[in-house]
Amino acid sequence: MDKIKTRFPPSPTGFLHIGSLRTALYNYYFARKHGGAFVLRIEDTDRSRYVEGAVESLLRTLKRMEIDVDEGPFVQSERLEIYRAHAQQLVQAGHAYRCFCSKERLEELRAVQQTAKQPTKYDRACLTLATDEVEARIARGDASVVRMRIPEGETSFEDEVRGRVTIQNKELDDQVLLKADGFPTYHLAVVVDDHLMGITHVIRGEEWISSVPKHILLYQWFGFPLPVFAHLPLILNPDRSKLSKRQGDVSVEDYFEKGFLEEALGNYVSLLGFNPGGDREIYSREELIAAFDLKKLNKSGAVFDVNKLLWMNGQYLKNLPADELALRVRPWLEHGAGDVPEQLLQKVCDVEKTRMSLLSDIRNIIPMYLHQPDISPDLLVWKTADREDALLQLKGVRERMDACDDKTFSTPGLVEETLKRYIEERNLGTGNVLWPLRVALSGAKRSPGPHELAWVLGKEETIRRIDHATSLLA
Predict the structure, then answer these.
(1) Do residues 418 and 408 make contact, with C-beta atoms less than 8 angstroms apart?
(2) How confident is the model over 395-407, as pLDDT tens digits?
(3) Architecture of domain 322-369
(4) Start-end ranges of CATH 1.10.8 in the chain?
(5) Which H or E element spans position 375?
(6) Selected catalytic residue, list 242, 245, 299, 308
(7) Known active-site residue 407
(8) Global model pTM greater than 0.90
């Protein structure tokens, strides 16, 4: 068998869609697993939908997702002569013909067919034009397109996901292959390019299944060998409608901007329609590549669950070393708190990472460590105690903290041991001591433990915050 080659052929019409990311990942996994090549092709022949900067955005996103390209990017708008030559080859062989129908006539034809509840197809008005007339009109400069001449019968193919698929040719339209502006349509360009670029496996969304018979006819007419086809299930909204902007974010960049990790997003998207086996949810890139198999792809659509993605992102954050997490959250602090000392930021990440779901959470977390938080005096009181007890416990802890050397504050564990000994020596209630201390340091009902807070803040700031809390209770 020839060297396996897959391709990712996005159109530069905006940001990269989540579904397109999954397509890119699956093609990348398949190529890497089999020692093949992954090709990037920019399909920009629909100039009406071209978005300036979309190609650059796409390349940045692929780089962030660590999807390495072996060949390309090839740009279809730079290959127009190749497509025109192939279109002319089909015309000469009688598999395609010139059509001079105006846009207005085609719209009128479509309206009539819709009113009559008939399939909206071209009526082949130009199929029987004499060769002399065609040549004369071309010479005169009349606008024309090249259309496929769909034969009678049926077209079948094997799909790695769906099995045997058969479509009656009468359901197919005489597809435009070459537009009046000289640009090819998707159908001509994709077949020609996949062949010339040596693509062995076409892995793409199921919305292209209905187009495969047209492509197979083109492969046959050109004498090209067929690639292996695998059509991926749709990605769905929670209500099982097709994933769309109306119900939430659909671009990869949307999730970057919210604070999702690239590796978490890649892991989650990879499992939308593919089960590597086992009962795990978290997989490394290497594990996904090793387990990837076209036979493991599901036929039914996969629901995109943002809550599950948030959970997965939290798992990745929790497992990041503090120094790496600090590096990843730093860009989120540039507006307002970008001057946070690195040692402090790493400590904050170390104690807070199990409570984070997004990188962007750091924006709400960091102020507590930089500034004295507002404290409600009533919040300082443990549920089975009173203000007098809270004040007593804070004064006692303050005295013990003041007596500690700097080494005690070198790890959360040493601070915790100190607090435990203090509670045991005086036979105090754990909640009576630790609750007012934690609130004094954080100002919040929910926060890391007081030993972790004291370690991050250090001895001097810990004592200062305890003094502030006692002043509120006095």
Answers:
(1) yes
(2) 999 999 999 999 9
(3) Orthogonal Bundle (1.10)
(4) 322-369
(5) none
(6) 245
(7) no
(8) yes
| Residue 250 confidence (pLDDT) | 84
Topology given in CATH for the domain delimited by 377-473: Arc Repressor Mutant, subunit A (1.10.10)
Q: What is the dihedral of CA 429, 430, 431, 436, to 10 degrees?
A: 100
Alpha-carbon gap, residue 135 to 101, rounded angstroms: 15
Question: What's the sign of the alpha-carbon dihedral 189, 193, 196, 198?
Answer: negative
* Rounded CA separation 433/447 (Å): 16
Distances (CA, A) of 128 to 96, 99, 132, 149, 179: 12, 10, 12, 11, 20
Question: Where in the sequence of the chain do the CATH 3.40.50.620 domains occur?
Answer: 1-75+233-319
CA distance 23 to 307: 22
Fold exhibited by the domain 81-153+165-178 = Glutamyl-tRNA Synthetase; domain 3 (3.90.800)
Within 8 A by CB and 6+ apart from 66, the residues are 262, 266, 285
CATH code of the domain made up of 1-75+233-319: 3.40.50.620
Residues 6+ apart with CB under 8 A from 448: 351, 352, 355, 442, 456
Give the pLDDT score at 248: 59
CA angle 311, 269, 309 (to 5 degrees): 15
CA atoms within 13 A on the CB side of 465: 28
CA distance between the termini of the chain: 83
